Amino acid sequence: MKPINVGLLGIGTVGGGTFNVLKRNEEEITRRAGRPIRIHTVADKNLSLAREVAGDGVRITDDAFSVIADPEIDIVVELIGGYGVAKELVLGAIEHGKHVVTANKALLALHGNEIFGAAQRKGVMVAFEAAVAGGIPIIKALREGLTANRIEWLAGIINGTTNFILSEMRDKGLPFADVLRQAQALGYAEADPTFDIEGIDAAHKATIMSAIAFGIPMQFEAAYVEGITRLEAVDIACAEQLGYRIKLLGIAKMRDEGVELRVHPTLVPARRLIANVEGAMNAVLVQGDAVGSTLYYGKGAGAEPTASAVIADLVDVTRLHTADPEHRVPHLAFQPDQVRDLKVLPIDEVITSYYLRMRVDDKPGVLAEITRILADSSISIEALIQKEAAEGESRTDIILLTHRTVERNANAAIRLIEALPVVSGKVTRIRMESLQ
User: Do 115 and 224 meet the contact criterion of CB atoms below 8 Å apart?
Assistant: First the structure.
């Protein structure tokens, strides 16, 4: 049977992993797909690297646009990254009637609505399992495996760099800056780690998952994004003492009023499985009304884990290559005319619990003033620690865990607490989720 011809755009870490896994497992993949899948052409600016990885028998070019226009190519795999030339190439491939496989979460989070619309009009597929959580098949689970469910919420550790940093801060009590340098030395963090540590990478992925889970358009611009750069080792230690661990979570929740879409450091009860995901691993917890909670765990990055997802998409596209476009799984799980433009709620309308730490004068009546402010804001207290002042110190820390409340109420209470003359500096606030 005639092979499916693939044009591979970019043969860096993931591209090289894709080429190697496809070659190593060629027989198994062919048995699954029903016909051979062959990389016909590789496009990369580094021609010598491309030739070194691909060897002979594969066409090599530095002109990616020639690949998307090549009539011999059936599927284009975009592994360039970013959303400049990558967007042009993906839209160009679609215009030429090519199916597309991509690992580009930023491109989809920002331009997915345009890309999926173009693919729908041309009757081609855009597959993107590798865009979220590396080798974990979370996209397939949301699009197909959980299709009988009304998804209520999902929460994921979807950035390995930040999870490694938080794990090391907890294990060794080190400050953020020291662990970030260690992560860079080990290759877990880029020289410029901004997208990871500021939560942007996780927000791209949470945006994609929320669209599939709830049948809504991509709305990255409406997501609330907060990274881990302001986290202190003292708060990680206090959370542990209270029976919690701090994780950077991407969270999406369906509510009657709209959708919560947010990324931020989060206290999670230590007894939850997801709280025990350590190092650079990823995990996504999904709550469906029929199935209950399901957890998806594995490597969220790396050459071969991500290649696993890329090749799974290639197999899916190969199987459905000749299928009627109307009978394929929709890009966002819901039929295109059933995608609902629901409002993403601003962070002020989010409902959650809070960890609050404040530096206060060590004298009678201080705690009473603080609890009065919280009570007046309809915020009840779940747990409290008041530390003894160190010898010779006139100030100490109070740590509070609250019950669930609307964020605007928490913000108003924090402003009043910070205005008290007995409170020094800013209140440290970290959101909490029970994930039940």
Answer: no
Q: What are phi and psi of 346, to 5 degrees?
A: -65, 160
- Compute the average pLDDT of residues 121-130: 95
| Chain centre to alpha carbon of residue 140 | 15
Which superfamily is assigned to 4-136+303-338 in CATH? NAD(P)-binding Rossmann-like Domain (3.40.50.720)
pLDDT at 322: 66
Rounded Cα distance between 340 and 362, Å, is: 53
Determine the Cα–Cα distance for residues 101 and 104; give it in Å rounded to an integer. Answer: 9
Active site residue 205: yes
Mean pLDDT (whole number) for 116-134: 95
User: What dotted CATH number matches 351-432?
Assistant: 3.30.70.260
Calpha distance 248→275 (Å, rounded): 10
Question: CATH 3.40.50.720 residue ranges in the chain?
Answer: 4-136+303-338
Cα dihedral value 312, 313, 319, 323, nearest 10 = 160
Per the residue annotation, which of 105, 205, 247, 299 is the catalytic one? 205
C-alpha 120/C-alpha 115 separation (Å) is: 9
How far apart (Å, rounded) are the C-alpha atoms in residues 18 and 149?
33
The rounded distance, in Å, linking the Cα atoms of 303 and 328 is 29
pTM: 0.95
Q: How far apart are CA 153 and CA 214, in angstroms?
A: 9
Q: What is the pLDDT of residue 146?
A: 97
Question: What Å distances lie between residue 356 and 75, 339, 397, CA to CA?
Answer: 51, 39, 10
Q: Which two tokens stand for residue 36?
A: 């051979």
* 138-299: CATH, from 3.30.565.60, 3.30.360.10, 3.30.2350.10, 3.30.70.1050: 3.30.360.10
Contact 435, 268 (CB under 8 A): yes
| Six token digits for residue 119 | 């693919």
Question: Can you read off the two tokens belonging to residue 78?
Answer: 């975009």
Alpha helices (H) in 34-103, listed in sequence order:
47-54, 64-69, 85-95
Q: Where do we find the tokens 């620690």?
A: 385
Q: Residue 181 belongs to what H/E stretch?
A: helix 176-185
Is residue 250 within 8 A of residue 202, CB to CB? The reply is yes
Q: In the chain, where does the domain assigned CATH 3.30.70.260 lie? A: 351-432
- Phi, psi (deg, nearest 5) at residue 427: -80, 130
Structure confidence at residue 351 as a pLDDT band (50, 70, 90) = very high
